Amino acid sequence: MVDPIPVRRGRPGYDRAQVLAIAVALFNEQGYDATSVADVAARLSLSKSALYHHFDSKEQLLALALDEALSGLEGVLDAPAASAGSAAERLAAVLHGAVAVLVDRLPYVTLLLRVRGNSVIERTALDRRRAFDHRVTALVEEAQRDGLVRDDLDGAVATRLVFGMVNSLVEWYRPGGPVDAERLAHDVVAVSLDGMRTR
Amino acid sequence: MVDPIPVRRGRPGYDRAQVLAIAVALFNEQGYDATSVADVAARLSLSKSALYHHFDSKEQLLALALDEALSGLEGVLDAPAASAGSAAERLAAVLHGAVAVLVDRLPYVTLLLRVRGNSVIERTALDRRRAFDHRVTALVEEAQRDGLVRDDLDGAVATRLVFGMVNSLVEWYRPGGPVDAERLAHDVVAVSLDGMRTR
Fold first, then answer.
1. In Å, how far is A52's CA from the nearest CA of chain B?
2. In degrees to the nearest 10, what's the CA dihedral of A171, B123, B32, B180?
3. Residues of A (140-159) whose Cβ lies below 8 Å from B
4. Which tens digits make up the pLDDT trace of B49-82?
5. Pick from B53, B78, B122, B159: most CB atoms within 10 A?
6. DNA-binding region(s): which residue ranges (chains A, B) (predicted)?
7. Residue A71 to residues A10, A59, A75, A132: CA-CA distances in angstroms?
8. Quick one: DSSP state of residue B116?
9. Residue B37's beta-bridge partner residues?
């Protein structure tokens, strides 16, 4: 295989995090399956062998990228705010934290949300997503038992709906755009827990 | 080009709606750009010329499919329920109607949500989607002026969040599955307008 653009030598080096970020941007632009290691190397103006100095394979880039998204989301459930206060307060903290992770790690979460289970790495990521959803559903159901969340909603469906709202941010939210991240997290928590209607 | 599987003759004929439905299923499975007219013909066990008896081009199939989704959504805003009662009641009717259209026309809405503006047909569809969003945002803002929707939310952001929730249904809702469509529409309206928290 030949690199599509000439390899420029003497450019400043990239660290692993930068290489990963650029690879993920490319995966999101043109699809993971359609992106080759040569494409990633070309985008970095590195030779393939220089890229292999950082990473063993395209699969490793994918695994690390998906872990970046998933460990962020799992960290929200493991944070002190997710285990202090009422189940409704913890749910608010989890939703707020999930929006913060999505905003902070937007390209990684975007990639995660496109995973369809085409490989062991993708299926492992889907299993972790599912485990995350189950922990949130358990929190919603606890809040229902405590009378804090209305019981005319199915806990699993409500969790899917609310994370459907959170995840839809990848379609339009752009850092530095007109919508402030903190304000966005507020609006997501406000609509999820209290709805649009005045009380 | 040669059809990838033999053309079986004497099969019962398809009407235009059936051909369109099968083409849309294929577009959703493997992507519109990656699907050829020959692929659609093969799925139907028709020759390409028999397919051209129904439709002029792949672009025409796309345009009709996107119109199926968009005219459904626009119909919700034009229905009597969307112009009777308070702005909050009309908003509830629009959300309920949008879920009903999504459930009824799931493959068409799925296709619409994947459109990225790669052609005139796609850009026209995106313009119609945007016009729909603007009409819903105007309704949210009217409800805010009437004191029926909380004014600490940005109307356009709230509309995006709530339609993010509605549109996320294409990721997991399946007709005939464990979640009833009418119940789902109830849950979407309930969470959007009144939130998960007990009042």
1. 31
2. 50
3. 140, 143, 147-150, 152-154, 157-158
4. 999 988 999 999 999 999 999 999 999 999 999 9
5. B159
6. 36-55
7. 35, 18, 6, 10
8. -
9. none
List, in order of start, the domains of chain A with CATH numbers.
Answer: 16-55 (1.10.10.60), 60-194 (1.10.357.10)
Q: Coil, helix or strand for B177?
A: coil
Cβ separation B168–A167 shorter than 8 A: yes
Residue B56 CA to residue B33 CA, distance in Å, equals: 17
Q: Is the minimum CB–CB distance between B133 and chain A shorter than 8 Å? A: no
How does residue B30 score in pLDDT terms, banded at 50, 70 and 90? Answer: very high
Task: Report CA torsion sign: B56, B60, B65, B71.
Answer: negative
CA–CA separation, A81 and A98 (whole Å): 12
Q: pLDDT digit string (tens) for B124-141?
A: 999 999 999 999 999 999
CB contact under 8 A, B148 and A198: yes
| A10 inside 8 A of chain B by CB | no
